[in-house]
Design goal:
alpha/beta; single chain; D-Maltodextrin-Binding Protein, domain 2; 2 domains; five-stranded mixed beta sheet; three-stranded parallel beta sheet; 12 helices
């Protein structure tokens, strides 16, 4: 019994220490003049990543810094961005956004009607195509109908609770009924396993493919269409989070057409990305 009490107490302390970082509502900052915006993040190459020294960089980091400047200029309020924690599992990342008040979830979170039932999104900050990826030694695929023959004995990899699960299930239902699907925790874990096991393939974000190219991973993209529409990525928060107010004013079409926003994309995703995606 004592052991159970100690464990439970430890859990409560952990929860309290986590939520203590994210106490400021937007309405409180308006009154006080300053405060902290807590960030939970899921590492995604080019969007938000941590280097060996622990420094964060990426398109999302640039956007967050621009948001701080916007609040200062428009409202005369000082917002401090505090990166509270990284969640390496996408499934747990989404769950944590749902259950943690007054924080913003940052990563490659696709805006979908289903997710909008339990979390609130900002306006999209980027459109992001999805691609079919495999080991470089795999046969080339030019049509999804070729998969049962050319990818026979292959296993499909997918990030758990991602929109990519839907795409692979459609492939299984319409083209490859015997397809075996294995769930992994993240896009980085997916690519790592694909490198180790040439008999795998998967659906990933274009941003992840750019990471594979930059790091010279032995992977290749296949010239097939996975979706008729590019995914839209947004920052996410609890439904009743009042930080939606300044974010809706900041993340406008005008901002996304600005020089500094485009510079963030070029610096973090490469100049070619501007021509590959439709600006939201």
């Amino acid at each position: 019994m004592k052991k159970s009490i100690v464990v439970l107490t430890g859990i409560i302390i952990l929860i309290n220490s986590f939520t203590s970082f994210c106490q400021d509502k937007w309405s409180d900052i308006v009154k006080k003049g300053e405060g902290t915006l807590g960030i939970i993040y899921y590492q995604q190459p080019g969007l938000i990543q941590k280097d060996k020294a622990g420094e964060l960089s990426g398109l999302c980091v640039g956007i967050l810094n621009d948001f701080v400047d916007f609040v200062d200029k428009k409202y005369g309020k000082k917002v401090t961005i505090q990166y509270i924690t990284e969640e390496p599992s996408f499934r747990l990342f989404i769950d944590r956004i749902k259950t943690t008040p007054l924080v913003i979830g940052v990563g490659n979170i696709t805006i979908t009607p289903e997710r909008e039932k339990f979390i609130r999104f900002t306006k999209p900050f980027l459109t992001n195509p999805v691609v079919l990826l495999s080991h470089k030694n795999a046969p080339d695929i030019t049509a999804l109908s070729q998969m049962p023959e050319k990818f026979k004995t292959y296993t499909a990899l997918v990030v758990e609770k991602s929109t990519h699960e839907v795409y692979l299930q459609n492939i299984k239902n319409n083209y490859y009924p015997d397809l075996s699907i294995k769930k992994v925790t993240s896009g980085l874990a997916l690519m790592d396993e694909m490198v180790k096991n040439p008999k795998t393939f998967g659906v990933i974000d274009l941003t992840e493919y750019i990471y594979a190219v930059r790091n010279k991973l032995p992977l290749k993209r296949h010239a097939v269409k996975i979706s008729d529409k590019n995914e839209e990525l947004g920052f996410a928060m609890q439904l009743n989070n009042d930080w939606q107010i300044p974010w809706s004013e900041f993340l406008t079409s005008e901002y996304k057409q600005s020089v500094k926003y485009r510079k963030h994309i070029v610096n973090n995703l490469g100049s070619s990305f501007l021509g590959l995606v439709e600006m939201p």
